[in-house]
Please model this.
Amino acid sequence: MNDLQLIYFTTIVELGSFSEAALELNISQSSISKQIMHLEDELGVQLFDRSSRKVRLSSAGEYLYPDALSALTQLKHIRETAEQFSIRGRKYISLLVLPVIGNYSFYIPFQLFESDHRDYSLKVEELEEPEMYRRIHLNDYDAAITYFNPGQPVKNARFYPLAEDEMVLVCHTDNPLSKRTVITPDILNDVPVLAMQKYTCTNQLYELYFQKHNSNPHILFRGRPGTILAGAEARRAPALLTRLHTETQRINNVALIPFQPSLNGILGIFVNEKSRHQEIIQELIRTLSAR
Model:
């Protein structure tokens, strides 16, 4: 048994639905169902009455639900108390970050912040977007640096913009599109392109952009930035990326063409309103904004 399984169990009870709980926690319904089955196997009881469509607690589930809530409260209290006795007496700020933030040179400001605030230490965890948003939805963080994702509403948090990243079309120089100074949405209607995974905010921004301008590019392949960038370099198709995604890659014979109307991604920091470190996180934001 682990606290994640207890969170799944209590969230299903609170929302009255496996599917609603999966949506709230940003995981698949099959994953949450599997974890509940593992929990039931370990406890040796059935937590839910599955004889009807509506989710209902079994008698064992009704008895154990208050205990699950109490256990989660106790675990949170243990972590918060342990923080007060952390190494060298420093308090930890749980900071989730996307791997791309290295391109923004944020790690030097992190060090400056810790030098100026000797009582605090940043516990930085690099995560891909699905895991990051799962942690955000669980309130298992103090702050998170990520692109603003219009398709991922975040509760109990405030977003502070830090930087912009321009969206571009990456074309091989043999492609006629590479000769253009800008790309308008209509030009890409039905044109094969390479795109990022559907769950990424970059993909969400592109989808909203093309919907707004009544254009529908043909997505030939989805992958990580490095993969679709390599595909563009190999003449497979142009790639929908951000300018920043290309800066750490060794690429040849490609052109980066901006969009018209322009399209920018916003990188910023979500601050958990339930965090006990509100004031010091504002100091961190000021340090990052002044980099």
Q: What stands out?
A: The radius of gyration is 23 Å.
